[in-house]
Amino acid sequence: MYSYIKGTVEEIYLDRIVLENNGIGYEINVSSFTAQSVQKGKDAKIFTKLIVREDDMSLCGFASRKELEMFKLLTSVSKIGPKVGLGILSCATPPQLSAYILSEDIAKLSKCPGVGKKTAERIILELKDKVDKESAEFEATLFNQAPTGLELDEAVEALLALGYSNVESKEAVQKFKKDGLKTEDLIKKALTYLMTK
Fold first, then answer.
1. φ, ψ for residue 109 (rounded to 5)?
2. CA nearest neighbour of 144 among 107, 102, 193
3. Phi, psi for residue 19 in degrees, rounded to 5
4. Domain 65-127: what homologous superfamily?
């Protein structure tokens, strides 16, 4: 029904944004990556998917077509709904998810919110022949080394909440990602680094 919506970002939350277009505020459920990619008061183009249920209608939104396509693939897997689909997309980028699926990395998929071992196995089984092999990122990236992607993501979000930019936050977290720190210690180290820059 809606391919995308262009408008001004009025509100940003961890899992949704409000986009105003022609005087209408659209509440759109998003991944944390999409939430981090937009700025309050700035214009944005969000690719959308309308979710219709018996008792509810909602919009899911994505910063890129690749993210939208990955969401469609994930939610085509039995027992994965929109909420879990967005949770998985908050855990890793589409190219990283493609790599996890192609390399049958159950451990990394299982770390995504709402995904257990059985669900991870089902994702691999149903999507291995459908994901984009060309764009898969197998090399080491910010979100697929120890500590876990979720811990790195949480540390970046904490720094963003403290007013640091996306670039500064990711740079600081990346600097200490190999130290094997948990979220809290990772935030402390990253903060110390940013304050002494």
1. -65, -35
2. 107
3. -115, 120
4. 5' to 3' exonuclease, C-terminal subdomain (1.10.150.20)
Look up the pTM and report it: 0.68
Q: Measured at the alpha carbon of residue 111, what is the angle toward residues 106 and 112, in degrees to the nearest 5? A: 105
Question: What confidence score (pLDDT) does residue 155 get?
Answer: 83
9/20 Cα distance (integer angstroms): 6
On the CB side of 70, CA atoms within 13 Å amount to 30
Name residues of the chain where pLDDT drops below 50: 139-146
Query: Which CATH number is 149-195 given?
Result: 1.10.8
Superfamily grouping for domain 4-62: Nucleic acid-binding proteins (2.40.50.140)
Q: Give the DSSP letter of residue 39.
A: -
Span 80-127, pLDDT tens digits: 999 999 999 999 999 999 999 999 999 999 989 889 999 999 999 999
Q: Pick the closest to residue 154 from 167, 169, 141 (CA basis).
A: 169
Angle between helices 149-161 and 82-91 (to 10 degrees): 90
Residue type, 49: K
DSSP E strands, 93-157: none
Q: How far apart are CA 92 and CA 149, in angstroms?
A: 7
CA distance 47 to 33: 14
Look at residue 27 and give its three-state secondary structure.
strand
